[in-house]
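Sequence design from tokenized structure. All designs in this work follow the same two-part layout: the structure record, then the generated sequence. An example of the structure record is given first.
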């Protein structure tokens, strides 16, 4: 052994020096890969250890952790991890091979996804020595289609989120990518540039996920967000269609409130929002109604005027008077934001006319009856005038009341249970006091009948008559009836047919008789008279009368 002089040291013989070390390697699935590892001098044993790649199921990058958006502030990006973050796991130990026992290389004959990670080679001169390690080398599997253009999965291009809540914008590529980038610009920004907000490695099982999330959405984060992705760190980002990220708050910057106009004129209801909308809705309810508004019109605004939900009525109708509410949606299935209602009032007009007038009614005591009186436009006052059915008594005003209904055009008179004393001639009178306008309808007759059982006071008995002769089939009731009916059951037949129906004749409406002016053979049979009273649907039949034709006598010479 050589002497060691003071101030000098002797090189230990168990030091391991590597002449070849494993390199970061990218390969395709199932391909063969060699990780080289050779020492300068012989070694006794080799060892390979493995560490996994960073987790792929990362949470969505949160832009809330970034500095506030500004056109001058620099936004830091997430660094791509290139070194292992866990302790190595020894996988294999074996004697060094080669002529000089200095080769520790390994080969993967068919690389699998499970083998991706950081691989570290180690060697030692004797089994009692500690291992000396190389720097870890990253083994990763790349997609052979990295050279193809990047395409993005399709998602909604409008996202609506309430301020202060969490939210996310989806972005996913159809093939693996290396890096994602998000950029932003204001909604009303006229300049074409975007502000780069955040960059980070693609995540997910197949490195196709670039979505971002917001823990606490701020109003200043509203705008157009554009997702970009690339497979090569030296290449430019391929960008997807911008996503309109909207805070769920709408301000109506122009809005009609109170509109007064005459019927038939044009009306413009203005409704402009402070941000783009995808759908407009207009609903209506009557001014004095507590019902839910009725959706009347739904449409998509023009792309050039996507803030504008205004509508125009070319010819406003009385039916359209009331409260009109403008609603907007920022996304197709998003929240409906409604503006304060606009009141549309139609001014009175002296060009009033009747749309419906009362008609003659015959009904029974206690039944419901309505004398209709509807006008073409709003009126202020209704009045009903009455006089008896018979006699010359003067007409008197029975009832006065304001117009009813949502549109102020209904002056109808309703009897829930009409009584006999309401029988008479009725006229409807409408007026607009402010315009000194009065209009009166023609009279209508209301006849009220007592409910009574049909009884017959006169009936024909069986009749024999020569063929071709004339005969009166007598049928008179004991009280008034509304309708008469005659039916015939022919000889040698079981079928009954209705021959005639008609209103009862006579001043008292009791006569249901009919005359056969020329009796024929096919009219032989049983004739039945029936009658029904007002307010009933069923007929009461009298006992039938048999009609027979006499054969002419034979004269012998």
């Amino acid at each position: 052994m050589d002497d060691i002089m003071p101030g000098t040291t002797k090189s230990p013989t168990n030091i391991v020096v590597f002449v070849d070390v494993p390199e970061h390697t990218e390969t395709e699935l199932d391909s063969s890969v060699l990780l080289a590892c050779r020492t300068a001098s012989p070694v006794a044993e080799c060892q390979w250890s493995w560490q996994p790649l960073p987790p792929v199921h990362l949470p969505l990058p949160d832009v809330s952790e970034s500095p506030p958006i500004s056109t001058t502030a620099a936004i830091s990006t997430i660094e791509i991890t290139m070194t292992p973050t866990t302790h190595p796991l020894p996988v294999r130990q074996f004697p060094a091979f080669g002529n000089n026992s200095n080769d520790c290389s390994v080969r993967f004959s068919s690389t699998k996804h499970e083998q991706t990670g950081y691989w570290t080679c180690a060697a030692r001169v004797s089994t009692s020595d500690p291992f000396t390690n190389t720097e870890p080398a990253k083994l990763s599997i790349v997609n052979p289609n990295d050279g193809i253009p990047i395409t993005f999965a399709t998602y909604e291009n409008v996202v609506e989120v309430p301020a202060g809540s969490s939210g996310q914008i989806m972005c996913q590529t159809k093939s693996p990518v290396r890096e994602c980038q998000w950029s932003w610009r204001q909604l009303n920004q006229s300049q074409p540039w975007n502000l780069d907000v955040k960059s980070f490695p693609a995540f997910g099982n197949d490195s196709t996920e670039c979505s971002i999330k917001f823990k606490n959405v701020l109003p200043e984060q509203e705008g157009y967000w554009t997702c970009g992705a690339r497979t090569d760190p030296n290449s430019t980002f391929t960008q997807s269609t911008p996503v309109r990220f909207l805070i769920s708050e709408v301000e109506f910057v122009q809005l009609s409130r109170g509109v007064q106009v005459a019927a038939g004129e044009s009306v413009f209801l203005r409704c402009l929002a402070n941000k783009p909308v995808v759908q407009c809705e207009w609903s209506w309810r009557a001014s004095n109604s507590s019902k839910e508004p009725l959706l009347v019109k739904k449409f998509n605004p023009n792309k050039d005027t996507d803030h504008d939900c205004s509508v125009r009525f070319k010819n406003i109708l009385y039916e359209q008077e009331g409260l009109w509410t403008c609603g907007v949606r920022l996304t197709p299935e998003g929240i409906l934001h409604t503006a304060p209602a606009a009141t549309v009032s139609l001014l009175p007009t002296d060009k009033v006319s009747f749309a419906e007038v009362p008609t003659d009614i015959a009904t029974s005591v206690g039944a419901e009856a309505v004398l209709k009186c509807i006008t073409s436009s709003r009126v202020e006052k209704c009045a009903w005038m009455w006089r008896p059915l018979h006699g010359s008594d003067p007409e008197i005003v029975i009832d006065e009341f304001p117009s009813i209904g949502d549109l102020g055009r209904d002056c109808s008179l309703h009897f829930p249970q009409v009584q006999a004393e309401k029988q008479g001639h009725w006229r409807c009178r409408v007026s607009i006091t402010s315009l000194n306008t009065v209009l009166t309808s023609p009279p209508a007759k209301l006849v009220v009948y007592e409910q009574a059982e049909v009884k017959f006071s006169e009936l024909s008995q069986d009749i024999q008559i020569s063929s071709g002769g004339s005969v009166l089939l007598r049928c008179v009731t004991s009280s008034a009836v509304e309708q008469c009916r005659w039916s015939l059951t022919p000889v040698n037949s079981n079928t009954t047919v209705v021959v005639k129906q008609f209103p009862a004749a006579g001043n008292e409406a009791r006569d249901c008789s009919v005359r056969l002016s020329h009796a024929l053979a096919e009219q032989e049979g049983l004739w039945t008279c029936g009658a029904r009273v007002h307010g009933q649907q069923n007929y009461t039949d009298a006992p039938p009368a048999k009609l027979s034709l006499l054969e002419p006598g034979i004269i012998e010479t």
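The two ends are 183 Å apart (CA to CA). We note this feature because it recurs in several other targets discussed in the main text.
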